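Progress narrative, work stream C.
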Amino acid sequence: QYRFTEGDWQVSTRVFRSDVNHGMTNYHLRVPPVNPMQRRRSEATSDSEGFGLALAHGIPGDRWQIGIDSYLENHNALIDNPWNTAFWIEGFDDASRRVQGLFAEYEWHLGKRWSMDAGIRYNVVSMNADTVDSSMAAMMNMMGMRVRNLRDAFNAADRQQTDHNIDAVWRVYFQQTQALRWYAGLAQKTRSPSFQERYLWLPLEATGGLADGNTYTGNITLDPEIAHQFEAGFDWEGQRFTAAPRVFYSRIHDYIQGVPSTNADALALVAMMNMMNGTSNPPPLQYDNVGARLYGFDMPWAWTMTDHWRLQGSVSLVRGERRDISDDLYRITPDNLRAGLVYYRDRWSVTLEGVFVDAQTHVSATNREQESSGYALANLKSQWQVTERFTLSAQVENLFDRKYRDHLGGYNRAVNPDIALGERLPGNGRNLFVGMEYSW
C-alpha cells in the first residue's frame, strides 16, 4: 500500500497477490472409515491478485474521491483416495472470477444543518470454468450413467458468464441541535454468485463455508443478487449519554439460496451413494434465485456515569425471510445485547463485558437449520498505554468457561466420541491473549 498527500489532494494505491494450497482428509485427524475405499482426500488450490487506485480531493464535508480496482481469483479442487488410485473427481478446474470496478464518492455540506454523501460503483464480473471429469463417469452402471449425464451437461453449457453490477448509496444528515442529528439512507447493493454457486457440478458439500450438512449443485445461469436498502435513525451526543439507533429494511431480488433440486441425475446419485455407503443424506439442493428480505434494528450506546466510570454497549435485532415461500433465511444472527462496565484512567482501562444472546427459533426449513438456545458470556479486557507510541492489551473471553453453541457455527461432520454427527458445534471455551502495538 502507498499513500501520497499534497495539500487537499490524496492518492492511494494497493497491490496484492496470494497463493493458497489446502489439503483435507477424512482419515488423518478423524476416525477413518472402516472400508479403505471410502477414504477421501481433497486438495484445493487458489490464487488471487489485484490492485486499487484512488484519487481524492477536499476536506471532510467537502470532498470527492474517484478510483478503479480489479480482482482476479482462480480455483482448482481434486478429490481422490490414496488407497484407490483409480478413483478421482475434479471438483473445480480453473474456475475463475474477475471483478473490474469504477467508483466515485462525494460528500458535502448544505448550510450549517444539512449534509449529504453519495457514491456509485460499476463492476464487471467475468466468470468461467474449464471442463470437468471424474473416474466415476467411466463406470458402466447406473451410477456411472448419472455422473456422465451431470458431467456432460456441465461441459456442454456456456460456462462463460458476465454480470454488469451497479452499487449506489445516498445518505443525508440533519443537525437539529448540537446534540441531535437525524439520519436517512438509501442504497442498492449487488452481489454476483461465487464460483461454488455457479460451477459445482456434482452434489457435494463444497459450499464455501455454508456448513449446513446438505449437498449442493451449482447453477451456471444464476442472476446477481440485487438488494434495495433503507436505513433511518438519529445520533444523540449528550454530555453524559450517546446513542445511535438505526432501523433498516432490505428487499433482495434474486437472492441466491439452495432450493430442492429437480435434477433427476443429482437426486438419483445421492440416493445411490446413501445405499452404497449406508448413509442417510437428504436429497440435494441446487442454487437458485429467490425473493428475500432483511429488516431489523441496532444501536450502539454509551453512558458516562462519572469521570472514571462508563457503561457502553450495543443492541441488535434482525430478521431474514423468504418472500417467495414461508420460510426463514439461513444463519441469521439471534437478537443480542452487549454491555460493558469500563473503569478508565489517563493511560489505562479495564472493562467487564456481558454478552447476552437470545434463542434463535426463526430458522430455515429448506436448509434443515436447527434452533439454538440463548446464552450469556462474560469477557474481561484491559489496556495500558505505556507511552504515546507503545500500548499493551490483555483479554479473557468467556471468563467463566461457559458451555454454549453459537447459532452461526457449523454442524459436526466427523465421527468422534465427543460430538454427535449433525450436532451443532460448541462455541469457544475460555480464551486468554495479550497484545502489543507500536506505532511510528
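Work stream C, second folded protein:
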Amino acid sequence: MKTTIRKTIWTNFAAMAFILTLMVVGCKKKEDDTPTPVPTPDPLKSTYTLKAKDIGGISGTVTFTENGSQTTVSISITGPFVNSGSHPANIYSGAAVEGSMTGAISLTPVDASGKSSTVIAQSYSTLTNYDGYINIYLSSAMDTILAQADIGGNNLTGTNKIYNLDTIGSSNIKGTAKFEQRINNTTLLTITISTVTGDPLPPGMYPAKIFIGTILTIGAPVTKTLNDINSATGRSITNIRNLDPPNSTAITYTDWLNSPRFIRVFDPITGNPVCQGNIGM
C-alpha cells in the first residue's frame, strides 16, 4: 500500500515537473519569436555656410535634409537688414562667382526672423551633387544680394594649393595664387596682389593669365585667361572648368597640380608683366 502511494506521488510530481518545463520552454520560445524593432535611421543632412555678398555682417547656413524622395531646404541667416522684411532666395546652376542665374529653383523667402524652409521635388542625392549655388536677396527687386553659398558639387573640399607670384624686374608688385578644389574637382582660383612696399596698388584692372610651361619658357602659349584683378581689392576670383577656346578642354583641380604652367600678372596701363610664378609640377 505504502509503495503504491509513493509511486502515485512520484508519478504526479514527475507529471507536474514536465508540465512546468513545457510552460517555461513555451514562454521562452514566445519571447524569442518576438521580432526586434528596427530603428529608423536619421535623415541625411548637408550644411553649407552662407557668406555676405553686397552687405557686410551677414552670416548663416543652408541645410539640405533628406525627406523621402524630396529634400527640405532650410535657411538661417543673421545680420543687418535681416529683420526688415521678406528676402527672396533662389538656387541657380553654376558657381556663385560665375553668376549665371540660370536654372532657378525658387525657395520660400526668408522671413524677418531670418528663417526659411522649403520642400523641393529633388532627391537628397541629386541636390547634394548639384552644380549650383544659392542667393538670398535683400528685397523682391533682387538687385542686392545679402548672402550666397556654393552648394552640392560646387562646395569646396578644403583641399588647396598656394603658389607665390614674385616681382619681375623693378616691379613693386608681388602676390599669391590659391587653387581650391571643389567636390566636382573643378577649381576656384583666387589671385591676390599687393605692393612690396605696402603702398596702395596703382589704380586699374590688372590682367592675369596662365601659360603652358615655366616662367623661363619663351613664347609660351596662353592656356587660361583669368578674371582681371581689381586694384581696389587687390584680388580676382575665377571659377575654372575649361581651358580657353578654341578647344575649351575640361581641366580639373588635379590637372593643375600635375602639369607645368605659370601665372603672369600684367600692368593695366603698359601691359608689361609685374609679377609671375610657376604652378603645378
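DSSP finds three helices and 18 strands in the chain. No further action is required on this item.
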